Amino acid sequence: MQKQVKVSAPGKIILSGEHAVVYGYPAILAAIDRRFSVEVGEGETLANLPPDNKELLEFALNEINRNLNKRKPTDYRIIIDSQIPIGCGMGSSAAFAVALSAAVLRYNDKPWNLEKINKIAYGIERKQHGNPSGGDNTISTYGGFLLYRKETETFKVFSSLKTQNFPSLFLINSGKPVETTGEMVDRVRKLYLKSPLKADKVFKEIEQVARGFLKFLSKEESKLGELIKTNEKLLEKLGVVSEKTVNLIRKIEKIGGSAKISGAGGVKENSGIIIVYHPDWEKLIAFAKNKNLDIFGVKLGEEGVKIGKS
Ligand code: PMV
Predict the structure, then answer these.
(1) Which of 22, 141, 155, 286 is most exposed, with minimal Cβ within 10 Å?
(2) Does residue 91 have its Cβ closer than 6 Å to ligand 1?
(3) How far does the centroid of ligand 1 lie from the alpha carbon of residue 251, in Å?
(4) What is the DSSP annotation of 13-54?
């Protein structure tokens, strides 16, 4: 029988701390119940990927082979299958990097080593996004809820957060942003260079919100809606939310809900995925239906990378 390995890794949302995390502030991330699956088998290197992703695949395989100390590249037949929308802030690229690294290591009979998988996946993410915090690949590797902090390029700390019964959240897809994550990170960098004190003040306020989320997770505080709302306003101050998305979020607030972008955002047109909370779900769903919005529920705190499809 031909050897083959199947691995899947989850997508993510960022509850709090996107952008600020690039500057060493904490972020809280959660793995979601949408996964990216990679199957590796014998055969010519071939993957069912769109043509513009072929270069990334080649880079990723070289990166993995380098970690396997292979001098001669091995060919793999790769089949991918994903439930995560691409380029909307749901961690599709990180889940791909994590699942591919894990599948190829496993295929080469290497021990299941999360630290190694995460490290290789970070290298692949760097190729794609320039200067990522590493939060996306870490949550996809370890799963659950994580408090994550990038202290320096090589020193990143994270801690798994235990929580029970996180309320159901809905996600609305405001559409794929025109800008890439790298471009949005660059945009904030420019703001930071122009007005470091102002930007730092916003990051510090975001940190306070992240701490509020920690209290919510440990049931010391219950104002989830307020935390989401405050975080959104701070992201708007950083200039990473489009006018169209701001308008939508204000409408959600008007009907008693709260919402924030999750991830890098986007300003020209769409801002990617939006996390939405409303104490009355029926009201929210009726609103979304009326506006023809792409809305779906998510489960948070799902398992990280694992053998098997889903
Ligand atoms: O790639 P996204 O949309 O999930 O955004 C990543 C979050 C940022 O904080 C904006 C960048 C990073 O590397 O953490």
Answers:
(1) 155
(2) yes
(3) 25
(4) EEEE-TTGGGGT--EEEEEEEEEEEEEEESSSSEE---GGGH
- For a mutational test of ligand 1's pocket, the pick from 133, 234, 270, i.e. the residue with the most ligand atoms closer than 8 A to its C-beta, is 133
Note the helical H segments in 152-223. 181-194, 196-217
CB of 266 closer than 6 angstroms to any ligand 1 atom: no
Has this prediction a pTM greater than 0.90? yes
Q: List active site positions.
A: 136
* Cα–Cα distance measured from residue 132 to residue 192, given in angstroms and rounded to the nearest whole number: 16
Q: Which two tokens stand for residue 146?
A: 């994580």
Strand partners, 172: 274, 295
> Is the CB of residue 265 below 6 angstroms from any atom belonging to ligand 1?
no
Assign 3-class secondary structure to 107-123: HCCCCCCHHHHHHHHHH
Q: Spell out a b/e string for 18-39, using b for 16 or more CB atoms within 10 Å of the CB, else e.
A: bbbbbbebbbbbbbbebbbbbb
Q: Is the CB of 140 under 6 A from ligand 1?
A: no
Question: Per the structure block, which two tokens stand in for 238?
Answer: 């950083």
- Measured in whole angstroms, the distance separating CA 16 from the mean position of its chain's CA atoms is 11
